[in-house]
Amino acid sequence: MRTETLAMILAGGQGTRLGKLTKEIAKPAVPFGGKYRIIDFALSNCVNSGIKNVGVVTQYQPRELNSHVGNGAAWGLNIHNGGATILQPYSSVEGEKWFKGTAHAIYQNIDFIDRHNPEYVLILSGDHIYKMDYQEMLAFHKMKKAALTVGVIPVPIEEAPRFGIMNTDQTGRIIEFEEKPKEPKSNLASMGVYIFDWAMLKKYLIDNQAKERTMEDFGQHVIPAYLRNNENVFAYAFRDYWKDVGTIESLWEANMEFLDPTHALNIRNSDWRIYSQNPSAPPQFLTAASNVTNAMIVDGCYVAGEVAHSILSHNVKIGKGSVVKDSFIMADVTIGENVTIEYAIVGEHARIHDGAQIIGKEKEIAVVGYSEEIGGLKDEEA
C-alpha cells in the first residue's frame, strides 16, 4: 500500500549550545513547558496533520529519546499501517555507520522509506517549538508542482544573518540560497521543514553517493544542487509562532513566553493538542505557607515556598522559605529550604540544598545540569 506522505524527523542533534542540558541527552529530548519534550511538537504536528507514518532518526545520546517516543502510543501512532519508527545509525555495506549530516541520514534510511513507497517525504527538525498544519504546506507544494518546498518564516532583517535565507522571485520560487549572509537580500529564514518528491530526492542522493559522495546536508548541498539544476523549488511562508530553542537564552525565553495565557502557540487549543509521554504522578500540593503567582505547576509538585512567573515540571519539591522566580525547573528536582532561584533553568533530578542561591540575569541565564547538586556539605567538610 502506498503512503502519500511519510514524515522523517531528524532528532539526532547534540545541541552543544545548550551546554549542560544536552550532556547526556539529545536536544529533541530536552524538557519543555513543564510536561513536554521538544520533539513532542513535531510529532504532534504530524498526527494533527493526518500524517501517521513517522520515522524518527536518532544518533547522539538516544536512550532518553527512544524511551520517550517508544512505539508512538502517546501520539496515537501505534496503529495498523502506520506508526512511529526509531531509526538509529547502523553499519552499512559501505562500512559507514554515523550519519554525516541531514541528507546523509535520509540516504542511510532509503530502504525504510521505500518500504512505505511514499510520493512525498516531509523532513522535519526535531528541535523547534511551533504548531503547523503540514497538509496546508503539502497543498501548496502540489499547486506549485514543486520538486522541493522549503518552509520559511519571515524574521526581522537584522536577525537574518543568523539563518539560512531563501531569496525568491514574485511567484515564491526560490532563486538563491544564502547560508547566514552578512548582508541578506531577504528575511525569509529556513525553518528546517522540507517537502520533497521522493523519487527525485532518492535519485539525487543515490547518484551523488555513487560519484562524489558529497551530499551530506540539505542546506549546504541538496538545496544548492536543486537550484543549480533549475528544479522547481518554492518557499512556503509560515506566519505563526515558531521558535528555535537551540541556546540557553532561547530555551528560557520560550518557556517564559509559554506562561502567557494569550501566547500565540495557544497550548490550550483542544483542536490542535500537543501530546506527550507523561508519568503518573499524584496531584500537586501547595502548603499554607506557599505563595504562587503566574506559574505553571505540574502534577506531583510539593510547594512550601514562593513561586512567581516560573514553570515547575513533574515531581518538583520546594521547601519552606525558598523563592523561585522567572525560572524553568525540570522534573524530579528537589529544592531545599531558604533557597533563592532567579532567571535559571534547573535540569532534571538536580538537588539544590538549603540556603543555596542560583541567580542569573535575563540575558545571562543560570543553568544547573542534570542530577547536579548545588550547596550542601563538601567531601572535606563532611
From TrEMBL:
It comes from the Bacteria. Residues 290-363 form the Glucose-1-phosphate adenylyltransferase/Bifunctional protein GlmU-like C-terminal hexapeptide domain. Residues 7-258 form the Nucleotidyl transferase domain. Keywords: ATP-binding, Carbohydrate metabolism, Glycogen biosynthesis, Glycogen metabolism, Nucleotide-binding, Nucleotidyltransferase, Transferase. Gene3D superfamilies: Hexapeptide repeat proteins, Spore Coat Polysaccharide Biosynthesis Protein SpsA, Chain A. Alpha-D-glucose 1-phosphate binds at residues 164, 179-180, 190. It is an enzyme of class 2 (transferase). Belongs to the bacterial/plant glucose-1-phosphate adenylyltransferase family. HAMAP family: GlgC. Homotetramer. This is Glucose-1-phosphate adenylyltransferase. The gene is glgC.
